[in-house]
Amino acid sequence: MNIYEQDLGKTAANFVALSPVSFVERSAEVFADLEAVVHGRRRYSWRQTRDRSARLAAALATFGVGRGTTVSVTLHNTPEMVEAHYAVPALNAVLNTLNTRLDAALLAWQMAHCETAVLITDRELAPTMSAALRLLRDEHGRTPIVVDVCDSEYGGAGERLGAHEYEALLGAHEPMGHLNGPQDEWDAIAVSYTSGTTGDPKGVVTHHRGAYLNAVCNAATWTMPHFPRYLWTLPMFHCNGWCFPWTVAMLGGTHVCLRKVEAEAIFDAIRSERVDHYCAAPIVHNLLIAAPDSMRTGITQKVRAMVAGAAPPAAMIEGMSRIGFDITHVYGLTEVYGPASVAVRRASWREESLSEQTRLNGRQGVRYALEEGMTVMDAKTMREVPADGETMGEIMFRGNIVMNGYLKNAKATAEAFAGGWFHTGDLAVIEADRYVKIRDRSKDIIISGGENISSLEVEDALYRHAAVLACAVVARPDPKWGEAPVAFIELRAGVEVDAADLVAHCKALLAGYKVPRDIRFEAIPKTSTGKIQKFQLRERAKSAAAIE
Question: Can you give the pTM of this predicted structure?
Answer without folding.
Answer: 0.85
